[in-house]
């Protein structure tokens, strides 16, 4: 987010906002200046003229009071539309690049954008309105006596140098608070994803310690940030107070020497106050904005456009040679060589810990092997690396969205609606749909969990069926489905010309025999300090 981004969000409204705040500054300056004539007429005993100037002054003051909230309202509308654009750009980047945790996304779209709103966007109102008031106040002081503006200029230079003392600390404290907030969100995501298990084993104490530690760190970071801001404001306020008092004394000296009138002295003090208060507000606003420098750069990087992911190449087979994967703890696992040709139906088996799901991560391009070669084959035999392969994948934990069952199957592709009836039939979902009043148009409630685990898996299986990918990876895709339905679903899949690689446990011998062959993985993990050869 930048000032340019804010203005370009709606150029017409942006110009109108500048005009409104300009009117606010002019009316505010005029209201103060006209009071000079009221004071002078009062000292002369001219009551009628005194009342006349008060009425005029009151009218101008009303315009001042009305213009500020109108400009502020329109500016806040401009800011929110700009934030909407920024969120869209960030989400587009997350969508196209991947590799981000949910907690990180939440922190960027929630906490960090709020900081930018409060400490970068909103201060622009203070800067613009106070700068305009400063300019008009300085112009007015010049008309009273040249020495007044000279004195104020010297004092202003001193005031302007004070904020530099705390700029770096403010920026660092803001970045540190944002980082601690991200850590807390990450901890919440990691621990609350297993909240039911913690409840089952009465482990609330460990949850409290995990959250309490990061929560305290965030609280301490926020306290330190506010402390640094407070010190900065105090330093700026001290300079402001000295400038105002000095200006009042200097203009009072000019009055006693009969260089200016009593009315001039009164408005000179008011305009000097406007100048130094304005400087104080501008300095505080600029200090706030400087504190977001690192955060703005982070957001700017996230909003940079990146090429959209192109659809991968449809694949039909896969080959694996000399494959070895190494874990972060130094352990490694080796896989046997295998070739799966077009139309093969392969069951991937092995004890827990032999690396079945890890192999799927390699095939999906989510994990890079330490050694060896893995590639898919297109219909014409062309080698396709995992990162460029387009294939179907069904995980054990079905991913659904808060929309209708129909849209969860078609994945919002209206062209596939005509195939829904056949797809739900093949995955044995028809009896389940009959239990819902709206049947296939039932909205999936992720909070209340209106679909069972088996029903969720059937929806995802129907999704794979309707999108008809030639190569399909299935990781315990029917683990929550009853054995009779599982037999029917797998039987339907095996009767197609798709290439299947499936991880499954507890299949009956009869069902296993329906596959073309099995790849049985055996434990081959080695620690990092052993010779892998």
TrEMBL record:
Gene3D superfamilies: ABC transporter type 1, transmembrane domain (1.20.1560.10), P-loop containing nucleotide triphosphate hydrolases (3.40.50.300). One of its GO terms (molecular function) is ATP binding. The chain crosses the membrane at residues 12-38, 50-75, 134-162, 235-259, 265-286. InterPro entries: AAA+_ATPase (IPR003593), ABC1_TM_dom (IPR011527), ABC1_TM_sf (IPR036640), ABC_transporter-like_ATP-bd (IPR003439), P-loop_NTPase (IPR027417), Sigma_54_int_dom_ATP-bd_1 (IPR025662), Type_1_exporter (IPR039421). It holds the Pfam family ABC_membrane. The keyword Iron does not apply. Residues 15-291 form the ABC transmembrane type-1 domain. This is Lactococcin A ABC transporter, ATP binding protein. It comes from Lactobacillus kimbladii.
């Amino acid at each position: 987010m930048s000032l340019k981004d804010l203005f370009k969000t709606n150029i017409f409204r942006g110009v109108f906002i500048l005009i409104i705040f300009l009117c606010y500054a002019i009316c505010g300056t005029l209201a103060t200046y006209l009071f000079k004539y009221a004071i002078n007429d009062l000292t002369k005993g001219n009551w009628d003229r005194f009342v006349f100037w008060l009425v005029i002054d009151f009218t101008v003051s009303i315009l001042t009071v009305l213009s500020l909230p109108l400009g502020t309202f329109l500016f806040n509308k401009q800011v929110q539309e700009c934030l909407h654009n920024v969120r869209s750009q960030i989400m587009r980047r997350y969508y196209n690049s991947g590799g981000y945790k949910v907690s990180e996304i939440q922190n960027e779209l929630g906490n960090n954008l709020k900081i930018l709103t409060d400490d970068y966007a909103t201060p622009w109102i203070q800067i613009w309105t106070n700068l305009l008031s400063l300019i008009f106040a300085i112009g007015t002081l010049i008309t009273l006596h040249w020495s007044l503006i000279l004195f104020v200029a010297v004092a202003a230079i001193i005031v302007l140098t004070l904020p530099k003392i705390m700029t770096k600390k403010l920026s660092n404290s803001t970045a540190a608070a944002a980082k601690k907030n991200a850590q807390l969100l990450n901890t919440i995501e990691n621990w609350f994803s297993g909240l039911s298990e913690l409840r089952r084993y009465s482990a609330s104490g460990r949850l409290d310690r995990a959250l309490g530690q990061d929560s305290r760190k965030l609280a301490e970071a926020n306290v330190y940030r506010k402390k640094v801001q407070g010190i900065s404001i105090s330093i700026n306020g001290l300079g402001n107070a000295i400038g105002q008092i000095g200006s009042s004394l200097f203009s009072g000296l000019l009055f006693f020497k009969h260089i200016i009138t009593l009315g001039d002295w009164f408005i000179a003090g008011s305009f000097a106050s406007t100048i130094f208060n304005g400087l104080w507000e501008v300095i505080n606003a600029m200090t706030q904005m400087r504190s977001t420098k690192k955060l703005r750069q982070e957001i700017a990087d996230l909003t940079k456009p990146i090429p959209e992911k192109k659809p991968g190449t449809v694949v039909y087979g896969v080959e694996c040679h000399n494959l070895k994967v190494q874990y972060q703890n130094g352990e490694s696992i080796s896989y046997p060589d295998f070739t799966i040709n077009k139309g093969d139906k392969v069951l991937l088996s092995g004890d827990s810990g032999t690396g079945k799901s890890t192999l799927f991560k390699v095939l999906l391009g989510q994990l890079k092997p330490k050694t060896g070669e893995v590639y898919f084959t297109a219909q014409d035999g062309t080698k396709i690396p995992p990162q460029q392969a387009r294939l179907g994948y069904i995980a054990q934990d079905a991913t659904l969205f808060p929309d209708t069952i129909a849209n969860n199957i078609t994945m919002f592709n209206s062209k596939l609606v005509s195939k829904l009836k056949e797809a739900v039939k093949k995955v044995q979902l028809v009896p389940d749909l009959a239990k819902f009043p709206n049947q296939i148009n039932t909205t999936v409630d992720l909070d209340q969990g209106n679909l069972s685990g088996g029903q969720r898996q059937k929806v995802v299986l129907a999704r794979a069926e309707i999108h008809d990918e030639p190569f399909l990876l299935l990781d315990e895709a029917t683990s929550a489905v009853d054995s009779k339905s599982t037999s029917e679903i797998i039987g339907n899949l095996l009767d197609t010309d798709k290439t299947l690689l499936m991880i499954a446990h507890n299949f009956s011998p009869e069902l296993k025999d329906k596959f073309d062959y099995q790849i049985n993985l055996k434990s081959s993990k080695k620690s990092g300090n052993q010779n892998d050869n």
